[in-house]
Design goal:
The protein is globular and about 50 Å long. The chain is mostly helical. The protein has a two-stranded antiparallel ribbon with strand order 1-2. 73% of the residues lie in helices and 4% in strands. It is built from 7 helices and 2 strands, in the order ααβααβααα. It has one domain.
Length: 143
C-alpha cells in the first residue's frame, strides 16, 4: 500500500500550469456536456455547480493519476471511477436522467448508467492526451 501512495504522490508532482489547464478545460468540458445533455434531454446535473465537484474535484485528480498509463489502462481505471460516479449520482438523485431519452431508445432504460459510464470513461485517456498536447503548445520551452 505504501508503494501506491508513493506512486500517487509522484503523479501529483506536476507543473501548476498543468493543473490550472486541466481545471479550465474540464470545467468548460463539463459545462458543455451538461448543456448538451440538458438540450438533448438525455441527462443533467441537478445543480450547475456539480460541474465543479465532478469535473474538477473528482476527474482532474483521477486524470493526473492516470495520465502516464497506456490508453487501455486509463480507460479501464476510468471506467471504475465513472461507474462509481454514475451510480452515486443516480442513486443520490444528484443527476437526473430524462425519461424516455435518446439513450433509452437505443440501448434500453436499464442500461443507461452503464452506457454513461462506458462513454465518460473515455474522458480520462482523451482528456490526458488533449491536455498534454495543449500544454506542449502553450508552454513549450524554446530551445
Amino acid at each position: 500500500m505504501n508503494a501506491f501512495f508513493n506512486w500517487a504522490k509522484e503523479q501529483f508532482k506536476v507543473d501548476k500550469r498543468l493543473v490550472i489547464l486541466y481545471c479550465m478545460v474540464y470545467f468548460l468540458w463539463g459545462l458543455g456536456m451538461n448543456w448538451f445533455g440538458t438540450e438533448m434531454e438525455i441527462a443533467r446535473f441537478t445543480f450547475w455547480w456539480q460541474v465543479i465537484t465532478c469535473y474538477i474535484l473528482y476527474m482532474v485528480p483521477i486524470s493526473l493519476l492516470l495520465r502516464n498509463l497506456p490508453f487501455h489502462a486509463q480507460y479501464a481505471y476510468g471506467l471504475i471511477a465513472m461507474g462509481l460516479l454514475e451510480f452515486g449520482g443516480y442513486a443520490l438523485e444528484t443527476s437526473y436522467a430524462y425519461p424516455d431519452n435518446l439513450m433509452d431508445h437505443f440501448f434500453g432504460e436499464r442500461t443507461f448508467a452503464l452506457g454513461m459510464a462506458l462513454f465518460f470513461a473515455l474522458y480520462f485517456p482523451l482528456g490526458n492526451w488533449g491536455i498534454g498536447r495543449l500544454f506542449t503548445v502553450l508552454f513549450k520551452k524554446d530551445g
